[in-house]
Write a structure and sequence with these properties.
Layout: E1 8-14, H1 19-51, H2 54-65, H3 71-90, H4 95-101, H5 115-134, E2 152-154, E3 167-169, E4 173-176, E5 179-182, H6 190-195, E6 200-208, E7 215-223, E8 245-250, E9 254-259, E10 262-267, H7 276-293, H8 316-348, E11 353-357, H9 361-365, H10 387-393, H11 395-409, E12 413-417, E13 426-427, E14 432-433, E15 442-444, E16 450-452, H12 453-462, E17 464-465, E18 470-471, H13 473-495, H14 501-508
Parallel strand pairs: 8-11, 11-12
Antiparallel strand pairs: 1-7, 2-6, 3-4, 4-5, 6-7, 8-9, 9-10, 13-14, 15-16, 17-18
Helix pairs in contact: 1-5, 2-3, 4-5, 7-8, 8-11
Length: 511
């Protein structure tokens, strides 16, 4: 079935539920989790049978026999992987195949979960997990869902229907198999009123952690582009869109940008606190509680006993602490998303075309493969790289938000520049490329100026020419004096920042 090609935007509204309604929703989400796990078990069994088939084993033997170094081997490897993918898809490993298979599992729960939610809400989640492992190489195995791990469910939409055929939008409430879930609406909110005038394609129910209990929301997928927000007092556009090119040099923790109207170096999501110590404290508390309520699971030396049926008793205090830990992590994610959205709105006010070097962030999170010895101490260097920084700051999320906003506004948006342009090595005054170690944070220019490395890279990317895959030398020389002034102002602002844990990272980049 072809996917809808019309514009889509989302509006998330809280649900105003009574206790029995929350319990009923929690029950249905738990049933969805059981269907998910049952299907994962069945698909893994089918995958093991596929791996034992003669054509698949012959294909794998050919792949392992290749040297992978010569160009001929690379071409042969590509053909073998295409053959392998065809074998998997013919064996039913596709989204359509998974939607067809799920009919064997949901019918026992038809009073709570219907075909629409099972086929279009649960099966795609199972397929997404297998697709990452089999075709995208983003995981080594598919995991089962623990209790409470299903966070969203949706159904299928039909043209003319108000938000689907099972989970249905009814103006002031959501209807789902006998449940009427009231929406918390704000009649004075002009943005919300205008968004609700759009046709509802389908409804997704969301569960998010709260401080003491889970919170429930309805996410309406609407047909059309997002409504432009205006200031109710002045009538001006709240987030105006600029014109021109903007260069972005993004790192694991910082973002440098350069535009015709300004340049700056900012820390990504500086309000996201380092909560690792608090998380460790809560996890230790949970471990003590588990050992106290399940003493038979542990041997005298504290290790888990083997060969017995483990118990999983949870006290009320354990459940409260577990909810506190979930809420702590959710709060950090919400703060990070809000700050990324604010930064994306600011960048859109500077220009409508953003040049950023193509980055594979997952490669930066991996540990170093080679063992190195420090020349100063003679000890082995740590192999850890940028995993914790990427997890805390989520730089790829900012680029994704910027891309989605640009697509909704119909502007060029984010353009990825190949790393072959070597923005960190180029000097536009001398026209030469000079490799620099990562620790060298300043560029000594031929005219005597000292320019911060990230800001200068952003300035170069601002003047990237996609037609020639090089930098525009004329515009670089023309705009450089103004950039130097922006650079000095940005550095002064950074030095004037108060000395806080969140600002120390960005100040280290000025050394």
């Amino acid at each position: 079935m072809a996917k809808c090609s019309t514009d889509t935007c989302c509006l998330t509204l809280p649900l105003r539920l009574e206790k029995w309604q929350e319990d009923r929703l929690a029950k249905r989400f738990e049933i969805a989790r059981q269907i998910y796990n049952t299907m994962v078990r069945a698909e893994l069994k089918k995958l093991r049978a596929m791996e034992q088939s003669e054509p698949y084993k012959a294909n794998q033997e050919k792949i392992q026999a290749l040297d992978w170094k010569t160009q001929a081997d690379k071409q042969a490897l590509k053909a073998l992987y295409k053959e392998r993918d065809k074998l998997l898809r013919d064996g039913g490993f596709s989204e359509y195949g998974f939607k067809s298979d799920i009919k064997n599992y949901y019918k026992h729960f038809n009073n709570n979960i219907g075909s629409s939610v099972a086929v279009h809400g649960i099966a795609p989640q199972v397929w997404a997990a297998f697709e990452k492992m089999l075709f995208k190489k983003e995981g080594k195995k598919v995991h089962f869902k623990k209790k409470g791990d299903i966070h969203s469910l949706r159904g299928y939409s039909v043209t003319g229907k108000s938000g689907g055929v099972e989970i249905i939008f009814r103006e002031t409430y959501i209807e789902w198999k006998g449940l009427k879930l009231p929406l918390k609406l704000s009649p004075d909110n002009i943005y919300e009123t205008q968004m609700l005038s759009y046709r509802v394609k389908y409804v997704r129910l969301l569960r998010k952690p709260g401080k003491r209990k889970d919170r429930w929301y309805a996410q309406l997928s609407l047909e059309g582009k997002p409504v432009i927000k205006y200031n109710p007092k002045t009538g001006e556009v709240r987030h105006p869109i600029g014109k021109g090119a903007v260069g972005l040099d993004i790192g694991p923790q910082t973002l440098a940008y350069s535009a015709a109207t300004g340049a700056d170096l900012v820390e990504l999501a500086n309000q996201v606190q380092n909560v690792e110590q608090e998380k460790r404290r809560l996890q230790r508390k949970l471990d003590r509680s588990r050992r106290a309520t399940n003493p038979g699971n542990y041997a005298d030396d504290g290790t888990i006993r083997r060969g017995i049926a483990l118990t999983h008793n949870k006290s009320k205090r354990y459940l409260r602490t577990q909810q506190e830990l979930k809420y702590l992590q959710h709060q950090q994610a919400e703060i990070r998303k809000r700050q990324h959205t604010e930064l994306a709105n600011h960048l859109l006010s500077l220009g409508d075309c953003f040049y950023v070097e193509k980055m594979v962030w997952t490669s930066l999170t991996h540990r170093a493969k080679e063992t190195e010895i420090s020349e100063k101490t003679g000890k082995i260097k740590r192999k850890k790289r940028f995993g914790k920084s990427v997890a805390n700051k989520a730089p790829a999320t900012l680029i994704g938000i910027l891309q989605r906003k640009s697509a909704a506004l119909g502007i060029p948006g984010v353009i990825e520049v190949p790393t072959s342009v070597k923005a960190s090595q180029y000097n536009h005054q001398s026209g030469t490329y000079t490799p620099k170690p990562l620790s060298q944070r300043w560029n000594n220019m031929p005219d005597g100026e000292r320019i911060q490395r990230d800001l200068y890279s952003a300035f170069l990317l601002q003047h990237y020419d996609p037609q020639t895959n090089t930098f525009d030398a004329n515009s670089l020389h023309q705009d450089y004096p103004q950039f130097v002034q922006y650079h000095h102002d940005a550095v002064l602002r950074l030095y004037a920042m108060p000395k806080t844990p969140s600002s120390m990272g960005i100040k280290r980049s000025l050394r």
